[in-house]
Amino acid sequence: MNVIGQLSNKVHLVKTLAETGIVRPTRPDKLVRTLLALTTWGPTPAAGYTASAIRYPNATAIIDELGTLTFQQVHERTNALASQLASRGVKEGDAIAILARNHRGFIDAVVACSKLGCHALFLNTMFAGPQITDVCDREQPAAIIYDEEFRDLVQDALKGRKGFVAWADGDVEHSDPLIEDLIARGDTRNISPPSEKGRVVILTSGTTGTPKGANRKQPESLEPAAALFSKIPLKALEHTHIAAPMFHSWGFAHFTLGMGLSSTLVLRRRFTPEDMLQAVAEHECTALCVVPVMLQRTMELDDAVLAKYDVSSLRVIAASGSALPGELATRVMDLFGDVLYNLYGSTEVAWATIAEPSDMRAAPGTAGSPPRGTVVKLYDDQGKEVPRGKTGRIFVGNEMMFDGYTGGGNKELIQGLMSTGDVGHFDAAGRLFVDGRDDEMIVSGGENVFPREIEDLLADHEAVEEASVLGVDDAEFGQRLKGFVVVRSGHEVTEADLKAHIKAHLASYKVPREIAFMDELPRNATGKVLKRELKEL
User: Fold this and answer.
1) Domain boundaries for CATH 3.40.50.12780 within the chain
2) How do residues 62-112 score in pLDDT, each as one tens digit?
3) Angle between helices 45-55 and 28-41 (to 10 degrees)
4) Which of 288, 371, 391, 392 lies 20 to 30 Å from 168 when distance is taken between CA atoms?
């Protein structure tokens, strides 16, 4: 990048950070100490809570089911936990697996890992015991920090490893120490930074196979955060409810952004749509982080329940993690106002595009456009860029791309841009539409079909709550389309009705040969439909 480009980026960074409230007048002594902390720790979880403890020691950092913690308390708790883990043999460079829901223990563990220079490996709370064992055998963590409810699931994985309990319910005897007990007896004084910064390993969703570990280093600057802030109007020192699981890249992204903003993070261990609304209303949250299925479940609530909670404080509903149907986006904005922002990306590339409310009003179903510092291009199978309006494979470049899978291997690269594994097209206004996974293309009778447009069309039907479409083997056509539909409460619809609906809008070869009706679609913890399970039905 040339000098003018670098200067432009710096000006944009300072301007954006000032608009969010991160940069604001500060006492000179606090400013010096804050800059020293940021210089010492770099853009890491350790830096985030150290700096906030200096600037806003008595401000509330976390609200969960156990109560509140200030930034100073979180800083001291994580110092104490880091010192206790070190005294038990955990050392710089070790990996620490974390199997925890959204609560203070998750944050304590992540920040303590950062202060020790350990690598935090996030385990999915919906994993079965054998999956946990397989991941730990591959990643070789030195210890596992887990919620008590998962004790039986981690027993095999714990063999030969240290175990610590992040959250416990009731007076139950534990074979492994509670991190609350470690914190109570630990040294709260500042600790020396490690020689190497720890990394975060986030597992891919595993919707089409075994989850892989995505090795992600900490960003080199605050410019990626500023790029998001320029598209999603988050502000400093406000309340954010992170309903999306923080072990997933989207929930963790908002945890990371919240650190930079010195946000009060409102957390609940389990999601229900009414509890989410109650948390937003009670704590006057201005931002809500969700995956789309959470919005789907919220819109299923009775009107009386929706009217029960005053959520007018919300300025941002930030959604990501799976496809957001245009029909659902419109209904959410009609109810909550034009405060919905949809981020499209992947564990490997972080983000690609962001759709603002105006985008989704003008072009329902769009994934939006790239934020500053991100490049998105579409290529054909020969690696040539496709023209606007044509479908191609989606490739992304930005500062947040991962460093490869922990077990080896990487995503395909073309001219420094990384594949998301999806295909899509740009409309005339330069907005991206994601047509589906590149490995989900169905060839039926010689015609190429991507499920996404059929799924979106089915979701637009007044009687359909949600839908999924995939290809199944067919002796005559190679593959045939099969749909799976959940009918909205209080409605009735037949297979013939839905086929006619599709045929009225799309080519006849895009009409599924059969449509199965289900009570619910199988999903993972982040709301992605598990199509491999549907294929087995």
Assistant:
1) 3-198
2) 999 999 999 999 999 999 999 999 999 999 999 999 999 999 999 999 999
3) 170
4) 288
